[in-house]
Amino acid sequence: MGLELRQQLKLSQQLVMTPQLQQAIKLLQLSRLELMDTVQQELLENPFLEEGAEAEALEQAEVVPEVETTPASDQELMRNADWEDYIGDFSSTSKQAQVREFEAVEATSFEARISGKTSLEGHLEWQLRLSRLNDRQIDIGLAVINNLDSSGYLQATNEELAVLTGASPEEIEPVIKSIQEFDPVGVAARTPSECLLVQIKNYGIDDPVLEEIVREHLEDLEKKRYKPLCRKFRISMEELKGYLDKLTELDPMPGASFGSEEPVYVSPDVYVYKYGDDFVILLNEEGLPRLELNSDYMQAMEGRSSKEKEYFQDKMRSAVWLMKSLYQRQRTLYKVTESVVKHQREFFEHGVTHLKPLILKDVAEDIGMHESTVSRITTSKYVATPHGIFELKFFFNSALGLDDGSQVGSESVKALIKKMISGENPKKPLSDEKIAEMLKDELQVNIARRTVAKYRSALDIPSSSKRKQVF
Question: Where in the numbering of this chain does the RNA polymerase sigma factor 54 DNA-binding domain appear (predicted)?
Fold first, then answer.
């Protein structure tokens, strides 16, 4: 079979995403803090962009001069740049002006800005340096501290620590015992039982029964097998309750209070306020710089070489596109929130139990956009409502059919399940089957027991056997 080269013409269609379109799509799905970082990065890299004062931005008009070497398409792009739309607000100005006075601005305290949180490793190392251990033991102690998890438990064996430090396993154990008496007491333990026993000894609790329970029967306590324990130790349920009360005063995770991760505070992207019989939507633009074109660089385009002008024009088009993309993002966010408020008005009026079923397609058809656009704009976006701060995706939930043919949202069912469990008798907790019967009586909805179990697990609520309190 011979080999040969042939030329063949083939007509096909394919979707090509320009860098500008990719940037616009990326901006849609960025959170508010990520958007601020992206804009700041563009301000550093693009000389045509600058952060202007709000008053100056409001007065800005068409500031792009016509340059002979600029292509006609670029002139048309700059001529049609709708700066007023970019600057303008998206809701009624009169209502916004009256509602803004209700906005609460939480300022970070001066102490919170200058103080640093002590880590578990730093706290223990400070005590290690002040201890009476010699230099070799301090080196072993540093290896022990560096192998603790976030709860304060030692994750390395004595043999592994010996390899790391070049010491013998016999030298490792005394150092571990010393560190276990540091603050917090019980740190560097290998098991919860060891951790609690160290605390019992350190606090001077002399009770052989309590020590035996901690050493051998923690699993029985976890599974609430109380009667076998009472028979084994020949004690009453009241005496066993006294031992449990002593155990609750101990800390099975001594290192948890020194969490290494800082808390993440949510900054809402949108505020929804009740104003009379209507709801007002305000976009949170605090911290987001007002962008405008740098007039000095635009004037510097005159008299430049073709390569310099080409660079200037590329940066100018990039700046214009970024400003338009930001405007489009804010406009899309406002329209999606407005549609959500329209569909979920009962929620904004009365709370979570009145949340209705809603899917992306409903909002997309309402605002005339694609579902993928709605999905991107609802990612990592938060809304401050009269009932708290919720992620925008929270308002999209599946439907459960009622007996009368209507539907109820799954989040409403979850809220009812949480409310029922919070009001139950701790000694006789509600089973999943009982909750399903109560939901049928209250909502007239046929919901299976396994569905109740799934919703309960999603709410991080344990089963009825684990919620049961004997005492």
Answer: 310-469
Q: Considering the entire predicted model, what is its pTM?
A: 0.59
pLDDT in tens, 406-456: 566 677 788 888 888 888 888 888 888 888 888 888 777 778 888 888 888
10 Å CB burial of residue 393 (0-12, 13-18, 19+) is: middle
Strands 382-385, 270-275: pairing is parallel
Residue 285, token pair as written in the block: 């633009």
256: which DSSP letter? G
Distance, in Å, from the CA atom of 192 to the CA atom of 189, rounded to the nearest integer, reads 7
Q: What is the DSSP letter of 168?
A: -
Which residue in the block uniquely carries the two structure tokens 């009269």? 386
Residues sharing a CB contact under 8 Å with residue 77, sequence separation 6 or more, in sequence order: 317, 320
CA 201 to mean position of chain CA atoms? 40
Domain 399-467, second-level architecture:
Orthogonal Bundle (1.10)
Residue in 400, 414, 402 with CA at minimum distance from that of residue 443: 402
Answer left, alpha or beta for residue 50, where phi above 0 means left and psi between -120 and 50 means alpha.
beta
Encode pLDDT of 378-398 as tens digits: 988 999 999 889 999 889 887
Q: Of all helices (H) and strands (E), which one includes residue 142?
A: helix 135-145
CA 157, chain centre distance (Å): 35
Main-chain dihedrals φ then ψ at residue 276, nearest 5 degrees? 70, -125
- Name which of 65, 39, 30 is nearest 299 in CA terms: 65
Q: Could you give the 3-state DSSP secondary structure of residue 271?
A: strand
Contact 363, 337 (CB under 8 A): no
Question: What letter would DSSP give residue 152?
Answer: S
Domain ranges of the chain: 19-59+70-97+267-377, 120-258, 399-467
Separation CA 100–CA 80 (nearest Å): 32
Give the whole-angstrom CA distance, residue 36 versus residue 305: 35
Strands in 150-277 per DSSP E: 270-275
